[in-house]
Write a structure and sequence with these properties.
alpha+beta; Nucleotidyltransferase, domain 5; 7 helices; 5 strands
Length: 194
């Protein structure tokens, strides 16, 4: 319980039960000097609070650190922790940024919504690049079945163009005896084959 709460409890015991202040303080666990102390609201905090509220209205994206820096430039002699405490007590918070809005309507790119329903439904193509010690480029073509997550082909060449990609896909279709319904060449495009 806070000292103010204990102060109220002591006053209640004195009023209701007519006990002495010494006895009520002993029951509640409040020091008598604390009970007799009358807290005062300093006037300098009132002016500082008003200045912080003005900062918050004029600059809603500012936080207490920026407000403290400007206060110091204006000649206020106040430390950062005091500004932080008053900022929090006044409920002055930087507004949180909103979540990214979801797109509305029909997308021309439904790839992120298409889930493979069975093997050979969607094949995903992915190109990766690497470099050998002598600085020459390596290009990797990975073909993955989206349903089973099976890596059906991993081709490593110095150069893989569209014709080489078609050759790899033709070889896979001949080897497996079936073609996929969709090929997902990259996250931006979905190709419907049948």
């Amino acid at each position: 319980m806070s000292p103010a709460g204990r102060r109220r409890a002591v006053e209640h015991l004195q009023r209701v039960f007519g006990v002495s202040q010494r006895w009520a303080c002993q029951l509640v666990g409040q020091h008598r000097s604390t009970q007799r102390h009358q807290p005062v609201e300093p006037d300098r905090d009132r002016a500082l609070r008003e200045q912080l509220r003005q900062f918050s209205r004029a600059h809603p994206r500012w936080g207490y650190r920026r407000a403290h820096a400007v206060l110091r430039e204006q000649g206020w002699r106040v430390n950062r922790k005091a500004v932080q405490r008053l900022w929090r007590e006044e409920g002055l918070r930087v507004p949180t940024t909103g979540r990214k809005r979801q797109r509305l309507g029909i997308s021309t790119c439904p790839a992120d919504r298409l889930a493979a329903e069975h093997p050979d439904h969607v094949w995903a193509l992915d190109y990766q690049f690497d470099q050998t010690l002598d600085g020459r480029i390596l290009k990797l073509l990975n073909v993955v079945d989206e349903h089973t997550r099976e890596a059906m082909a991993i081709t490593v060449e110095r150069r893989i163009d569209a014709d080489a990609t078609v050759r790899v896909l033709d070889h896979l279709v001949a080897e497996r005896g079936t073609a996929p319904r969709f090929i997902w060449p990259d996250p931006l495009r979905l190709v419907h084959l049948i």
